[in-house]
Amino acid sequence: MVAALEPVDVVIVGAGICGTMLAAKLGAGGKKIVVLEQGPERAPADLISSQLWSRRLKWSGPPVETAGSDPTGYRFNTGWGVGGSGIHHYAQWPRLKPEDFRTHSLYGKAVDWPIGYDDLRPYYDQVQAEVGISGDHHAEVWRPPGDPYPMAPLLTTPQADMLAKGFAALGLRTAPMPLAINSVPYKGRPACIYDGWCDSGCPIGALANPFVTYLPLARQAGAEFRSSCSVTRILTDAAGKRATAAEYYDAHHQRQIQPGALIVLAANGIQNVRLLLNSARPGHETGLANRSGAVGRYFMAHLAMPSSGMFNQDLQNYLGVTGGALLNQDGYGKYRPDGPFGSYTWAISSARKPNDIIGIANTEGTLFGAAYDRFLKAAVRGLATMMGVGEILPKAENRIIYGDGKDAFGFPAMKIVLSADDNMRALAATIRAEGLKVMVAAGASQIWAPNDVNWQHLIGGHRMGSDPDQSVCDSYGITHEISNLVLTGTGIFPTEGATHPTFSSHALTQRTAEYVLKNWAGLG
Question: What is the pTM of this model?
Answer without folding.
Answer: 0.97
